[in-house]
Amino acid sequence: MSNAAQPWWRQIERYQWTVLLMTWLGFLFDLMDSTLYTMVMGPALGDLLGRAGTVQNIGWYGGLIFSVFLVGWALGGIVFGVVADYVGRKPTLMLTILVYALCTGLAATAGSWWELGAYRFLTGLGVGGEWAAGAALLAETWPERARAKGAAILQTSAGMGYFAAAFIYLMVGGYSWRLVFLVGALPAVLVFMIRKSMRESERWLEERCEGATVRGCDGAFDGAKVRRFTLAQIFGRDLRRDTIVGSMLASVANFGFWGVSAWVPALIQNRIADDPSLAAGVSASSYVSYAIMILTLGSLPGYAGVAALADRFGRKPAFLVFFVGGAFAAPLIFLGPWTIGQMLVLLPLLGFFTLGIYAAFPIYLPELFPTPLRTTGAGFCFNIGRVVSAAGPFLTGLMVLYTGSFAYAISALSLVYLLGPVTLIFARETRGQELA
User: Fold this and answer.
1) What average pLDDT does this structure show over 386-406?
2) How far is CA 79 from CA 111, 131, 225, 242, 360, in A?
3) 231: how many CB neighbours lie within 10 A of its CB?
4) Fewest Cβ atoms nearer than 10 Å: which of 198, 318, 365, 429?
């Protein structure tokens, strides 16, 4: 049977599945460690701020720490994206996982809100860098026909990361927010698994050694092949438009998520604090855990939907559907006359669009750039969006400070998703193209 007639999964070799598994776990744990803060923000800042821990101050300082984390995420994605193009995908993947795992554990030792913010900034550095290295490694290892499917499967790890964070909070959140962060250090073990089971990207090695004068080149930088700084090249004449468009798309998605979905735990905690009878005898921490799990369940068909649309109609139509859905899901859920139970039933809709759209980025961004610039370009586009999106939680916290309502704040900010369809006018379609 020819390759074209075979189901796509039969064309995937065992080692390619191993790459998917290792990068999937890396994504799972970085989203887990990212999400833990959203669930312990209220209790942690209530503890660290003491008598000053009012709803308004928790919203204000919580937004500041969110923003600092996103700046770290953006900086890590850009810096480690460049590093991965120079020293390799595998060592960068290992280093970034180690950074985000250990710094999450260190957050358990915070004695003030600014110390917590500092540890979250360092965690962000590792989380941002891990995405760029993992997405490029998968794209360079899997065949073109299966690339969108592989990227969609990879993105399901995000949903599982949110689920894992919710499970951790459900199990130990009732004891201490510090214990929650301490458990978040466990992913450091993954570094040893990657070191043993994975090798460097063959595409990267071939490109790195092209024209090298040293026999047996292994991709190490030895001066045999000198290139212009990769960040400068992605803004060259041929790639400038792709870089700007990719950055805008990621900025909209990231701004929307961190300004909207990331605040769901705080919104639920605040509603129960205002009216304890809404909890019906169930702890607020349990409701928060259930909310994140339900939100995650909605994201799983969202990831599959992105892959199906991207393969059938193209990358741009997939983005369009999810941007429009993301704009209207939050107001429907949070401004309606819903009880907490009814709101939980509707939360999968929010997860479907605001989380599902992330599956489009490991498909689309690596396709925009050639191998020597792939992690620099994809890392820059996806993570420069973090710099812009850092304004999301800051503005949410500011609106909460002045309105006293999480529901109004996050519903208003969800309209930022409507900037996505405007950006798509200038985007390049890449469906069916081989990696450069």
Assistant:
1) 72
2) 29, 12, 21, 19, 22
3) 18
4) 429
